[in-house]
Amino acid sequence: MRGLAPAAVAGFGLLAGALAALTAQRHTIDSLRIRLSCLEEAARTQQHANLANQQRLHWELLSKAIDNPELAEVLDVFKGPLSPQRRRQFLFANALYTNQLFAYRVGNISREEFFGLVRGLLQNPIVRDYWYAGQEQRATIADESDEAKLGRMVDELLRQLEDTDADEWWVVGETPPD
């Protein structure tokens, strides 16, 4: 028995040391998880701030072009010649659509809300003309981007709106799943 007691004490000591090491390691892992979660949230917040700054810059540029026909000519990437008035209308339609796009991307509105708001915008014939005039430009957007996916969704919605005879435009189309 006397010979086993020191071995048992040593065994318990090793076990206690291993448990202490595991506890310390677990604490370190939990701490790293919390730090990683904070960094991911900071990255999302920074991305939203970047999108907000981009939207502000986009609006400032469009405002200058809307106010100045000479600057608006620089943004005339639409098919066929446009009058200065029509170009300003298209630029404003772009601002309206882009505002909804950014609101969706930062999480201020859901995909369903985006769909409903765009469905309302498409009731305006100028917005529809703008959408058709920008088809070639939208075709250059990367296929898997949010903007391209939403653009295809709007294309399909516009097709459905034009194919329907219903006076109740607000019920046309189903929001596609995310």
Q: Per DSSP, what share of the residues sits in E-state strands of 2 or more residues?
A: under 5%
Terminal residue distance: 70 Å
Rounded to an integer, what's the Rg over CA atoms? 29 Å
Annotation, overall tally of beta strands: 0
Q: Which structural class matches the secondary elements?
A: mainly alpha
Number of continuous helical runs: 7
The geometry reads as: elongated
Q: What does the largest sheet look like? A: none
Mean pLDDT: 85
What is the string of SSEs from the N terminus onward? HHHHHHH
What share of the residues lie within helices? over 70%
Low-confidence stretches: none
What does this structure look like?
This protein is mainly α and 178 residues long. It has seven helices and no strands. The protein has helices at residues 4-67, 69-72, 84-105, 111-121, 125-133, 135-138, 146-163. α1 (4-67) runs antiparallel to α3 (84-105), α3 (84-105) packs antiparallel against α4 (111-121) and α3 packs across α5 (125-133). The longest helix is centred in the first third of the chain and has 64 residues, at 4-67. The protein is elongated and about 105 Å long. The model has no long low-confidence stretch (mean pLDDT 85).
Q: Key features?
A:
178 residues, mainly alpha, 7 helices
Provide a brief overview of the structure.
The protein has 178 residues and is mainly alpha-helical. It is 74% helix and 0% strand. The termini are far apart.
Explain the layout of strands and helices.
Elements: H1 4-67, H2 69-72, H3 84-105, H4 111-121, H5 125-133, H6 135-138, H7 146-163
Helix pairs in contact: 1-3, 3-4, 3-5
